[in-house]
Amino acid sequence: MIPLHLEDLATIVGGKVHGAEGPVEITAPAVLDGRQAEPGGLFVAFAGEYVDGHEYADQAAAAGAVAVIGSRPTSLPTVVVDDVQVALQALAAHVLRELRATGDLTVLGLTGSQGKTSTKDLLSGVLTQGGATIATLGSFNNELGVPLTILRADASTRFLALEMGARGIGHIADLTAIAPLDVAIVLNVGEAHLGEFGSREAIVRAKSELVQGLVPGGTAVLNADDPRVIAMRAHTDGPVLTFGTAEHADVRVEALQLDRLGRPTFQLHARGERVDVSLPVVGAHQAFNAAAAAAAGLAVGVPLQASAEALSHAALSKWRMELHELGRGITLLNDSYNANPDSMRAALDALVSIEPTDGGRRIAVLGPMLELGESSQEAHRGIGEYAVGRADLVLVIGEGASEIAEGAVGGTSFAITAADNAEAIAWLKAQLQPGDVVLVKASRGARLDEVAAALS
Predict the structure, then answer these.
(1) Buried b (16+ CB within 10 A) or exposed e, 320-348
(2) Count of alpha carbons within 13 Å of 242, Cβ hemisphere only?
(3) What is the pLDDT of residues 124-176, one digit of tens each?
(4) How far is Cα 183 from Cα 107, in angstroms, rounded to an integer?
(5) What's the alpha-carbon Rg for the chain, to the nearest Å?
(6) Percent of the residues in the chain that have a pLDDT greater than 90, as a whole number
(7) Cβ atoms < 10 Å from Cβ of 266
(8) Taking the CB of residue 39, how many other CB atoms lie within 10 A of it?
């Protein structure tokens, strides 16, 4: 966060200062959770349907916050505004303009129907090879997460990597209005949030807003393997870099192999150079994500070899392809943060790439995929069918995922169901055998992280 006096902040966001007896300087990032405030920080208070952030100003003060943006006065010096979200976004846009004007800041945005957060994590490591980097925490990629990430940047920041999500047309355009992009990375167009968008064509339109959000001369980094994505080059007159497995990709994945635990080794080929990469994360699809990160690195001047070195030490955000070796030789693959049909298939492919030991089984513990709309039943049944031959046993949790079991039984009779997480945990603790490999995967609302935690 660049230092700001409270009166200047009020001018920027169009608010009025209440409760300040003297000058107040904000020197630390803005937060929504008062417990996460830092000395000199700013607390952003929203009045929600069930929780009113203004009531937690004292908590924020105890953690070090010196001021609040809110819709009414609090116990801390407060800039009172009509719309807290609009004020937060205006502040972030101002700070970004100041950093661009006074520093050497490059802003990168990333979107896609799946793999956003993992690729952002890989990208963050790549960018660090070129300078101080601020990246989205976890998948906090919405109208609040993007401005809060921007406000973590300061004069020393060289790269700002922003994951950008969308639940409808216009959402990404709103985000790029706050943060115009020097580099726009589009991974894929899949079925995530299909129920909210209504059609694959609407998803394409929404994702293409990222490319349209480039500054003049900005670079688009596009998936050469996805025709819907590569067509987005029509939305920019600037440079385009492509990535993937296609022969014409500018950054190409070659010679992909997996070790016993499903971790990929491969070569990246770009601009006549080949480098070896060994990723410490699970899944062949992560090689593709690494290619996207390396392509973005090239766009901002990070050499391919430096990217390969960074990728070899990569770490992903919580509950994404987390590999745990449990007692009795049992292996847990915790990918419980979120799910859609594409990421479900990728997770099942990762499961089949891990070799059980001592005659163990591959067990897929799957819950519901949310926000799929009218296609939900068909999509769940399709995942069950896809699991046939990839998992020795499928444990399906919750009524919302029942079609997974139906699809799996349609191929063989190895699917069982559990009414809830507690029943699933009890079954797993009683039935797991030495050498088993267990995948845990569902949308966030199913909270299958509770199942993974119970096994750890």
Answers:
(1) bbbbeeeeeebbbbbbbbbbbbbbbbbbb
(2) 17
(3) 999 999 999 999 998 899 999 999 999 999 999 999 999 999 888 999 999 99
(4) 7
(5) 23
(6) 87
(7) 24
(8) 10
The dihedrals phi and psi of 387, each to the nearest 5 degrees, come to: -70, -20
Tokens 């070659």 -> residue = 254
For the cut 80, the answer to whether the pLDDT of residue 274 exceeds it is yes
Q: Could you tell me if 404 and 395 are in contact, meaning their C-beta atoms sit under 8 angstroms apart?
A: no
In the block, residue with structure tokens 């049944």:
381
pLDDT one-digit tens code per residue, 85-132: 999 999 999 999 999 998 899 999 999 988 999 999 999 999 999 999
- Round to whole Å and give the CA distance between 262 and 286: 10
Q: Whole-angstrom distance between the N-terminal and C-terminal Cα of the chain? A: 37
Asked whether 198 and 166 are in contact (CB, 8 A), the reply is no
- What pTM did the predictor assign? 0.89
Task: Please give, one letter per residue, the 3-state secondary structure of the chain.
Answer: CCCEEHHHHHHHHCCEEECCCCCCEECCCEECCHHHCCCCCEEECCECCCCEHHHHHHHHHHHCCCEEEECCCCCCCEEECCCHHHHHHHHHHHHHHHHHHHCCCEEEEEECCCCHHHHHHHHHHHHHCCCCEEECCCCCCCCCHHHHHHCCCCCCCCEEEEECCCCCCCHHHHHHHHCCEEEEEECCCCCCCHHHHCCHHHHHHHHHHHHHCEEEEEEEEEECCCHHHHHHHHHCCCCEEEEECCCCCCEEEEEEEECCECCEEEEEEECCEEEEEECCCCCCHHHHHHHHHHHHHHHCCCCHHHHHHHHCCCCCCCCCCEEEECHHHCEEEECCCCCCHHHHHHHHHHHHHECCCCCCCEEEEECCCCCCHHHHHHHHHHHHHHHECCECEEEEECHHHHHHHHHHHCCCCCEEEECCHHHHHHHHHHHCCCCCEEEEECCHHHCCHHHHHHHC
CA distance 390 to 283: 14
31 and 44 in contact (C-beta within 8 Å)? yes
